[in-house]
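Page header: ASSEMBLY MODEL / two components / 423 residues total.
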Amino acid sequence: MLQVPFIRENKDLVISRMEKRNIDATSMINDVIALDEDRKRIQTELDNTLAESNAISKEIGNLYKTGQAQKANVLKEKTSQLKETSKELNDTLNSTVESLTQLLYKIPNVPNETVPKGSTEDDNEEIFKEGDIPVLHDGALPHWELAKKYDIIDFELGNKITGAGFPVYKGKGARLQRALIAYFLDKNTAAGYTEYQLPLLVNEASGFGTGQLPDKEGQMYHVGEDNLYLIPTAEVPGTNIFRDTIVDESELPIGITGYTPCFRREAGSYGAHVRGLNRLHQFDKVEILRVEHPSQSYKALDGMVEHVKGILQELKLPYRILRLCGGDLGFTSALTFDFELFSTAQDRWLEISSVSNFETFQANRLKLRFKNAEGKNELAHTLNGSSLALPRVLAGILENYQTEDGIVIPEVLQPYTGFKIID
RNA sequence: GGAGAAAUGGCAGAGUGGUCGAAUGCGGCAGUCUUGAAAACUGUUGAGGGUCACACCUCCGGGGGUUCGAAUCCCUCUUUCUCCGCCA
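Prediction written out in full:
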């Protein structure tokens, strides 16, 4: 959620940057400013009424103490009018604040100046590409065929137990998945991130804090009985660690990492592109999150990109990095880099990581602040990224590392799997 | 799930109708002293709105009510603790 003072002081900038998202924000921004002025005006009026009424109450107290009950009773009559006025003003204030808040919920984050204007993923800007695309032997298979051939992932079994999008990993498939999780966590902790194990169900306030609620609740599975949501990403419980907190400037930067399953309803996405591991309702992911001083957050974002690059280099997988265009940029993000892995057997790029700087957009909802050098409380910046999302990395390994003798395990993973080939 | 108790500032903990945004202790910060540190002493130390700055307003788990006036009384929700039940 954007800060009203920021909107007020940077009106033209906000409107022009929103054009990158193909949004004409003019009327929304004007409404925000107008509503905020209303709010201030009503608030002041209410404050004055309350001040008067407080003063009278104090006087009544004194009169009673000095035995002047008659005079006190006269004053009491006066307050009933004030009470009525303040009640009305309070109602007006509440509805104004509510309108303002509802409007602010609808306004996405201001894109960074480097975000290209664009409407679809075709307008994303490729900024880096690395890794050799392997030449596969004749009869190379897509990962869902490989999964069946080597009996390491059973999609039909998942259908039976739960439904589509809940695969069952078996034997070396399960072990490879566990190896990847351990490997990612080790890489992240070696880079200074503190490992966390987080709740997989979150309450409304948490969903609100990171921006999933109120508008995107259809993406999450909801447990109605207890009004809890299954997490779509570790970003939600991980970032909400810091909800309603004021950290000391010396504690920054904060880096945490965590492995969690992720649950996404993915309503409405069906078709050829969701075959196999490409799009699931339940998948595993290792996430990295940072809380940064505003002056350091873009440097930190670059650092996260470099970190993820390092992992993909070690895995020797072909990948590219995209700078997302305004149209593809998430609601809460100011700048996002997507990592895509080339799936050789499918001949297409698969998104495996998304690294974003949210600036103060989440912090404002979370009330995540730090005490700055002047002793003032200031909103911190939050960032996060996948490091990495499991299924598509697994798909990429299966497809890119397949040989006629079986699937070779990348060298860095062998200490984790305990085997060198799936055959 | 049943019965009871509780929720106050970073922490501990007073406060049961008016001058309480809140005693006191610890912690934090600044200063005095010291070569430096510790100790001791002195001062300072919640958040938000509002203002050029003051004033002023709101907040004692959340919401509602009683009252001229609520941290304090009533209702309700949530959470925590204790006992019982169940249980990985």
